[in-house]
Amino acid sequence: MSREWMIKIVLIVLLAAGTTLAGIQLFRQRHFDVPMVAGPGVTRTAKLSDYSPGLKGTMADTTVFFLEGNEEGGKALIMANTHSNEPASLLAALIFLENAVVEKGTLIIIPQFNNSGGRNTRPGDGYPLYFEIPTDWGSKKFRLGNRDASPLDQWPDPDVYIHYPDKQLLSFIDVRNTNRTWPGRADGPLMEQVTFGAMEIMRQENVDIAFDIHGAETMFPVTNCIVAPEKSARMATMASLTVKAREGFDNHVEPSPSGFRGLSHREIGDYSDTLPFLLEAPIPFLDQPTGPKTEKFLLDGKDPFLLKLAKAKMLFVPYDESGWPMDKRVGQHCSVVLEIMRQYSRKKPERAIEVSHVPRYAQVVQNGTGSYYHDPSKADPDKVFLN
Amino acid sequence: MPFIMILYYIICVYLISMVVWNFIREKKNPEYFFHYLLVLIPLILRVLRVK
Amino acid sequence: MNVSEKRFLDYPEIQYVKWGQVENMYAQIGIIAFVMVIAYTVAKWKKLSVETSMFAAALAGGIAGAFVKTPPIGQLARHMVEGAFTYLDVMLVFSTATIFMAVISEFGGVDYVVRGTIKTFYNKRILALLILMFIILIPGALTGAGSVSVLVVGAPTVMALRYLGIPEKKVAAILFIVAGLSAAAPPVNIWAMMLCAGTAIPYVGFELPLAVPVLLLGTFTMLFLGWKREEKKELADILNQMPEVPKKMSWWRIALPFFVFFGLVAAVRIWPFSLPIIGLPLQFMVATLAAFLVSPKKVNLLVISRDTIKRLLPLLTTIVVVGMLQQVMTATGVRGLISFAVISTPLVLLFISLAIIIPFSEGVLTYGAAAIIGIPLIWFLDSIGFHATVAIAGLTLLWPLGDGLPPTALIGRLSVMVSEHKGSYWSFLKNTWVPWIVITITGILMVVFSSKLEFLVRWSM
Ligand SMILES: [Zn+2]
Fold this sequence. Notes:
By secondary structure, chain A is of the alpha/beta class. Chain A has helices spanning about 5-30, 90-100, 115-120, 190-205, 230-245, 265-270, 295-300, 305-310, 325-345, 360-365; strands at about 35, 45, 65-70, 70-80, 100-110, 130-135, 140-145, 160, 170, 210-215, 225-230, 250-255, 275-280, 355, 385.
């Protein structure tokens, strides 16, 4: 063999080895399913494609859980993993899914709203592929996804994303961002079909209130808050004041800007009768000036750079040596969702949504998020859903 | 799969074949061998629908 | 103690965090950064190319990081490969745009256009310069990539500028600066879009804050570098020197492929909800087919594509390796350290140092630099009363300058390649210093006075 081909073959073997190893890891992450144990409240399930048929057979399709109470009442929708790199949302939604008992009204839960994004990774940002939440029976493993849907499911990107139907110009990346593609349409790009599916659920089921759960950087001015348009602002304010007084954590209200299109808290309100609320808890992991992006950092939110910036008053949330543990963020989401549902039920008793067996902030912080998850290997197989 | 996405996979396959053609034709510079292979990594994994 | 706390206690793999001791983190990340610099330097010293040296830096940084499990060694290959995807779509745009232009050039279209321009505008110098400026600005403005401007219209404009009596080193400088401005020009400015997506701001109101400075600075650059006719040439001589164009050549054969491309770009904008998303690579490929069909002479598309990829190899490799570098830098914390260092600089000092930080970070990380420094900076400026849209517009004037700086020097290296500049890279870069400084000052002043310039945003809407 010639020297030229010797070198070529050595290089091919070396690079192929690394690429194959990496390829297997990435492929496994995309196809890894998180088992979710449907709790006592779940009465039926559907697929998002039942409401937006274009999603059928794609990775963007996802499971929708219905928790229907014995008594008629109002309906609430919880969407998590709109951004799959903000996992407190998924963890909070699973606490509801696995534990909630609905006495009155209906709770609809979409735990992995942007399923394609949850099966994507974020090139250039060096995340771990998975994270694990400790439970009483071992640890529960989750994919760490991306903010945007996978190009394997929606490709190519436009040169600039023209929002439907307002024609506002948005970044090309945001065509795969399910918090920019609202209200969506049945035959648009895949992510517009995803948000369209949720809009259809809200319209067909007459959903009263909708929660879109997120996390935001500590350096982002709109963090640790409830984002609400005018029509849900009063209720959000009441909930914010109540959790502050009764449970002792801050969660202020931010108005939904009317000039910025495509966001859930804007378009849900404008294109349906549902009252939208977008919940943000801080996620230091997503900030730019931090140390290495490790699983530990994702979970405990401790970072010395951010601590220094906090002392220079450059963060928008209180931040000290204790960081922002995941349990605090998950607990906040649980409490705020419960509180807004309570406020709504008080204001409209005939459309009340009464939910029990869901822990509040202090309990989640005390017991740990994982203590609310059930062992899928011991659960009734009919109750275990892979997504 | 939407028609336009299929066309993008065809574009990728076309570019892969051009890179491979150059890789085979390149006789001298071992660094270029290496560079052609690096460029192939994302193209091939995309066509295999890994990432 | 709850289950989560227990888990943190028995987390064996993180050895470095003595909580609260920032110095430890500094030292650890500093050492990793140092290893990367050493690896790059040694590779360059061994006479390896920029691309290979950057790959060596990324790999060495990842290995150094693996000693403290950031990233774990088993994840290193995955991080490198995942990083290679960061700019896959940019790779496709570069490749298809260049293949398109190579076909036009191969059938004589470029020569034909240059001949026409020189013939008509030889004696109307300012007009000729301004027309050439627009020709360079348009492809980059539409695609957001200055490199596309250089690749698509660089060759003919270089020729035209040379015939206008501008020496080759100044031609390369003009091409580089104006192509850089084209990337910043509206409607598509990739840095601004990345910042908008990262900071949650709509990509709206950028038309005037970008177009006004780009046109002023572009005109200044053209006139400053191109005003003097340094090499006297007679029109007749020039026309004689120019390469022959095929007999069957006519204006529509050139116009048609461009019409197809611009038509597709425009159509998607005009009917966004009835047409599917086509994307730039496919638009260029369709235009390539159109060019192939109307070519006055037989061209071999396969051979042209092959040779284009060969010519683009340094650029494509750079884009792949920069993604790997960026991913390793984030996984090890080096990227965060850079971001932290910039953000903690006092404001006045920060404004002055932007002139250096932004171009140099772009030189190392290309588009990746915008997120690291830009996102926290914009949030911070916004919170203390600066106008985010104008500030982003100002910053995006500075980023393209970095595309002339090593190690990546994306637009700079292409400008040198296309203009066939013979001297060293630095002898080319030296010629850009006056426009460089004027652009830098403009950009920084736009950031500083962003709230006063807010009317530009209002008038855009
Ligand atoms: Zn989010």
